[in-house]
C-alpha cells in the first residue's frame, strides 16, 4: 500500500532527446509542469566548449514562436537578445536597394536558444555528449520519450520499424552556404533591421544581422552551380556577375577563402504520421516535420508544437494515453500544411513571380486587408503573424482566391497600375536585368498563385 502510494507520488520522468531549439524549449515546458526532465544532447555543453562547432544560422522568429516562448516566460529574455526586422531589402544587380515592408509588425531575429535555458528549473538534468543511436547499448528509463533530435532523428528511426507508420523525405536540388559580412568601423556594413535579399531567379542570397554587427549571408543555389565554382577567382567572377555590391562588404580574400570552407549544405523536407507510439513516445520539431526554409517557419512550427502539446496536456489532464493520439490528430495536418507551403514557395516563387506583380499584389493585399481586415487576410500574414492553424490558413487562402470579386478588383487595379506605370517608365526592357525578381524566401505564396492565375485565366 505504502509502496504504491509512494510510486504514484513520484514525479514522472520525461526524456527529451535532442537539446536543439525545440528540445530546449520543450524541456522548459515539461519542467514547468513539474516533471522530472532529462535532456540528452549529442553536442558538448557550449558553456564549456572552447570552440563551438556547427553552422551559425540565425532565424526569423515570428508570432507562433513568440507565443510559445511567452507561455514559459521566455519571450522577453529572448526578444531582448534579438534584432528586429521591419522589412525586406531587395538588392538589384546594379546595387539599388528597395525596401518591401512586412504586411504587419515585422519579425525578430533569434540567435541561439540552447538547452542551458532549461536549467533554470531544478527538476531538469542536462546530459551533454550523449548521442542516442540505433545500435547503442544505452537504455533510457522514462515515462515519456520526446524525440526532438532534428531532421535525421534517431528516435524516428524506431517508428520506421513499426507497421502503419507513414514517412516521406524529399531533398531539393538547392543547397545553401553561409558567408560572413564583417562590420565596417565597428558598425553594420548594411542597414541592420532588414532581411536583405539578392533574388537572382534560380539562385539567391539573403543576409541577416547578428548581435556582433556581422551579417550572415546565406547563398541558396543548385548543387551543380556550387560545384562549377572550383577556384577563388571563379568565386569572385561569380559574385561580380550576380552580387557585385557584396564584394567590397564581404571582402575579396574572405570570399575566396570562405566559399571553400564547407560544401553547400542539403535541405530536406520530411513528413510523417503518426507522431506518437502508444503513450510512451512522441516526435516534435524537425524530427516530426523538417521543412525547407522558404517560409521561415521551421523553428516557429517546432515551437508551436510545444504549445499545442501543452494545450492538449491541459485538456487531458496529463494523461499520456489520451494526449499523444490527440496530439497526432491535431498537429499532423498543420505540420503537413506548412511543409507543403514551404515547398510550394520554393518551387513556385522561382517559376512565376516577377517583381512588378509582387510589389503590386503586396499593395493590393495590404489595401484589401486594411479595408476588410476580417475577410481578406494575406496568406503570409496568417502564417507569420497569427496562430491561425496552418491548414486552416491554407483553406482560407484558397477561399479568398476564389472570391471572384476579389480577383476582379485585383485585375482592374493591376490594369490601372500597369497603364500608370507605362506612362512613367520609358524603357521596360531594362527592368528585367535590374529590378528585383523572385524575392523568395519569406515571400507571400498568395503572390505566386495570383501571378499564375492572372496570366492563364486573364482578367
Ligand atoms: C538555411 C536555413 C534557414 C532557416 N531559417 C529559419 C527561419 O528563419 N525561421 C524558422 O522558423 N526556421 C528556420 N529554419 C528551420 C530551423 O532551423 C529548424 O526548423 C529548427 O532548427 C528545428 O529545431 P529542432 O530543435 O527540431 O532541430 P535541431 O535544431 O536540428 O536540433 C536537434 C538537436 O538534436 C541533437 N541530436 C541529434 N541527434 C541526436 C541523438 N541521436 N541523440 C541526442 N541528440 C541528438 C542535435 O545535436 C541538435 O542539437 C531554417 C533552416 C535552414 C536550414
TrEMBL record:
InterPro entries: FAD-bd, FAD/NAD-bd_sf, Kynurenine_monooxygenase. It is a multi-pass membrane protein. Residues 132-307 form the FAD-binding domain. Its main location: mitochondrion. Its EC number is 1.14.13.9. It catalyses: L-kynurenine + NADPH + O2 + H(+) = 3-hydroxy-L-kynurenine + NADP(+) + H2O. This is Kynurenine 3-monooxygenase. The gene is KMO.
